Every structure is written in C-alpha cells, then in structure tokens.
Amino acid sequence: MTKSTLSTATRPASGSVPAESSKSDFNVAVEKRDVLHAVDGRTGLYYSIPITKNAVNALEFRKIKSPSDHKHPAYQNEQGLRVYDPGFTNTCVSESKITYVKDGSITGMMIAGLSALQSCHLETVPAHVGENLYVGRPDRVDEQIILLLQSFAMIAAASYCHSISRPFTPPKKELSYIENFLLMTGHVATETGLPNPRHVEALERLWVVVADHEMTCSTAAFLHTASSLPDVISCFISAICAATGPLHGGAISVAYKHIKAIGTVADVPAKIERVKSGKELLYGYGHRVYRTTDPRFTYISQVLDGLTEEVSRDPLLQVALALDKAASQDEYFTSRKLFPNADLFAAFAYQAL
Are residues 141 and 268 both part of a single domain? Predict the structure, then answer.
C-alpha cells in the first residue's frame, strides 16, 4: 500500500461537523471521496486520512496527538495515536520480508538457503516420497549434483551480498561458473562491469587447490550422512557444517583473525612466546597429515604473487610474513615439524579478492 500524508489538523469552522456529530450527520456534512474524516474529541482538531484500496495507513494516526497537558504516561503525546488490534485481526500487510540480520552468520544463511532449495524439490527426498531413489541410479545422483552446484553458487552469493548490504547481480549464461560467482557477489571491474580476469584465475586456482584433498572432515561428514541414503542436498549441508569448524575450513577465517589480533610486526615475538608456553595456539601452522610444508601453500603463494597490488593494501600481510619468518627459524616449531599450511595465507588471497 502506498504511503500517504495526513492533512494538517485544523479545527472545524463554524457550522461544520461538530466533534460529537452522529454518523448520519457526519456523512452528509463531508464531501464523498476516498478519505476518512475524523475529529479528535479531546482536542477538537479535524483530520483527513486517505483511503487506498479500502485500507488506511496506520502510521497516519501517529500524527493525531493527545492534549499536551494530559498527564497519563500511556498517552505518550510525542508518539501520537496508536492503533490497537490484538492478533492483527483487522490489519492488512502492505509489505513482508523474511530475512536475516546483516551481521548474522553467512554460513547460517547458506544452510537456510539450501534447506529452502530442498523444500522446493521434495520429489528428490527419499523419505518424503517413501522409496529409495539413488541406490543403483547414478544418473539421478548426477542430476542432483548439477542442481546443487548451480544453486549453491547463487545461494552463497546472495548470502554474502545480504551480509554487506550489496545488491545481488543475476548470473549471465555466457559467463563461466567462477565468473558468474564473482559477478553475483559484485566483484567486477568498474570499466567493464565484469569480473577481473586475474581474480577469476586466482579464485579458480584456490578452489582447485582445496577441491580434492582426500578424506577431510567435511568429506567424511558428507559420506557419513550419505550412508543413510538421503538426498544430495542433505549430505552437502552436513559437509558445510563440518567445514566451518576452526580445525577445518574455518581455520582460514580464524588464522586471519588471530593475525589481526597480533597487531603489528613488533608484536610477533610476544605471540611466538605465548604459543611456545602453551598459552595460545598458532593457527595456520602444522597439519595433521603433512609433516612438512603443506604442498598447497606453494600454490597459494603463487596466487598471492598474482594479486600483489590487491594484497599490498592489507597491512596485516606484513604481520603474517613476519610470523612465518619467526616460526620457520625457531627450533620449537622446526623440531616438531610445524610448518605453514594452506590456511595461513589463503585468508589473504580471499581478502584481496
């Protein structure tokens, strides 16, 4: 319903409708049009409230003020007249939005989006249809994987845009998967309105590096859920939940936050000492599988080299480099075969993008 403005309150002129007029007298006295005429018997002020589609804007009543000398706190003169409608039995909804708070969890938004996606395709949920849909039917599994991948890119992009109050940009069929992801999240060049080719290449390399990494926690969670024969989306939600932990995919975010907490390069030695004394952890160092430098670290370093201009704007990079240098030269870390893993600098690559 369009908003309208309440006309300036006036006192009825001599011979016009009195405050206590009967209903029939009032109808005769006013011009017939889409307007609700009201006289506040407390003040004698006259109001005209527009009627649109057989409804009035409730906010218009806020301009009807109680007498300024009224002492009762319930009147709240500055707030105007309130409309009392318990249960909203006679209140129409002009606009409705179901959304998330801006500073809410992006992961939570993505999981909710995936749940909504599943609800739109209940024919793919074995428990809902009452039969085994996927055992011996790899073609059905492939169909669901394609649906999941194409939908998840949009869900993730929309969640990100909502969290930073950025408009979502619809994908273009002529662009690649990664190009469309950057387009949807608004990471485009001002001159072309399209993703920067360097950013496309960087993101592609980052995703390839982490795509196939054997039996990780999230992979195990996916397969564990799949063992009960649900739909693909349910399995993927399990994997996402597992991946957000600080000992898995969440380590990228945690490592960046810990580097930020260090402060400056001058504060690095103190951080190293706290780690060595067992008071703190050093995220981005050590790996449960690799007893040497994480092989992914080399490729991520190359990605950073290709984003020199963007990465150089992040003052925390120098802190990370100083931290890496100090740890690599400290016998405490080298004797325990604690070397940098992919998480330490992956955060800077994503931050640069």
Answer: no
The long-range contacts involving 14-21, CB below 8 angstroms and separated by at least 24 positions, are 16/46, 17/46, 19/44
Catalytic residue chosen out of the listed positions 231, 294, 324, 343: 343
343 as an active site residue: the answer is: yes
Question: Does 266 map to a domain?
Answer: yes
**Number of domains, the chain:** 3
Per-residue pLDDT tens over the stretch 109-147: 999 999 999 999 999 999 999 999 999 999 999 999 999
Instruction: Please check whether residue 235 lies inside any domain of the structure.
Output: yes
Domain membership of residue 190 (yes or no) is: no
Whole-angstrom distance between the N-terminal and C-terminal Cα of the chain?
41
Domain encompassing residue 318: 251-352
pLDDT tens digits, 165-179 = 999 999 999 999 999
Alpha-carbon distance of 107 to 160, in angstroms, equals 9
Active-site residue (options: 199, 287, 294, 324): 287
